[in-house]
Amino acid sequence: APTLDLDTIRAQFPILAEPIHGKRLAYLDNAATTQKPLAVLHALDDYYRHANANVHRAVHELAARATSRYEGARDRIAAFFSTQREQIVFTRGTTESINIVARCFLLPRLSPGDEVLITGMEHHSNIVPWQLVGAKVVAAPVLDDGSLDLDAWRGLISPRTKLISVVQVSNSLGTINPIADMIAAAKAHGIPVLVDGAQAIAHSRVDLSTLGADFYCGSAHKTFGPTGCGFLWARSEHYESMIPWLGGGDMIRTVSFEHSTWNEVPYKFEAGTPDISGAIGFAASLDWIEQVGLDAIAAHEHELLEYGTAALAQIDGLRMIGTARHKAGILSFVIDQAHPHDVGAILDQDGVAVRTGHHCTMPLMHRFGVPATIRASLAVYNGRDDIDQLATALRKACRLLR
Ligand code: PMP
User: Fold this and answer.
1) Which cofactors does this gene product need (predicted)?
2) Are strands 260-262 and 136-140 parallel, antiparallel or unpaired?
3) Å from CA of 197 to ligand 1 middle
4) What phi and psi values does residue 133 have, to the nearest 5 degrees?
5) Burial 108-144, CB ≥16 within 10 A → b, else e
6) 398 annotated active-site
7) ipTM of the complex
8) CA-CA distance, 132 to 120, in Å (whole number)?
């Protein structure tokens, strides 16, 4: 199996050396956002030092540099996902990408009573945008182990289903959904499919040329890139059929007071000055991932997930939520007689950064009968020492709170 050298990896993330309340930092909140390697920090610094200007507009040298770096980032992202550059639209992230599909693709096709089929483990960003445009949201049930009830999901596909939307990897439980099978089933019914890849792309290979989805989205900040940048991928025919929702500079071909015409895809969906440095940092983060190797990352995280699962099983009164067989590096749990927020505050005092709360999946929390969980989420720079620090701090929290 491919291996990686943890010391070398960690040396590239300066923030990991930051003392927290005088303790060593065990950063286990990677599903919320990841830390940034020197390669990304340098790319941002170099852009602002040597190439900063607005893109697409001027003939001067800096504008040419900014444009070539921004468009080069688009090429890089397209190559990473094995797709065409025209299919990558830069957005503020997964949330904005899903909202674009809701507003520009679904809404014009929607009749009263039409449904969007999702799952019971979706992030709020894959629930609320459909409600905002007036679709009826139908959610397939989640089984006790946190996996999707696939038979029930199939049974919910109906003539009213206008779109199917599914998270590839659950941010709350780590469940990996069988998206290839789900896309095949949707195709058999001629229903377009959106895949929310926010939690998937830093942890496993995604090939958009063969996946068969209609829409795919992700966020740079979950792949060791900057916040405020992400992408939408769509089939070209969908982009052509969609009227943009954001109007302004760069997205037009011609403008008059009577009538305007749109620029070509992807620019048609990128009104205004984009997050230029965000895109450049995003591309640098994917370069970094490629250099380490996605297979090595996946193998490392899988090993650590098993180690962490076993370590937490030793803690009295701890209940893991989400034990699906196909699972990514997320440990979500509750502890008897201890509120997750109180546990989180005690862990913080010992340098352990975890998320406590509903993780933007309130219906899923409801499904498991808990208001919140404690979530430790793994990334490539985590090691057994982080898990051990978590387990020790959890034992302390149990002593103090029970
Ligand atoms: N979907 C999933 C599964 C997520 O984990 C997140 C981020 N927590 C989002 C969507 C939203 O991503 P962003 O906040 O970057 O728009």
Assistant:
1) pyridoxal 5'-phosphate
2) unpaired
3) 9
4) -95, 5
5) eebeeebbbbbbbbbbebbbbbbeebebbbbbbebee
6) no
7) 0.99
8) 18
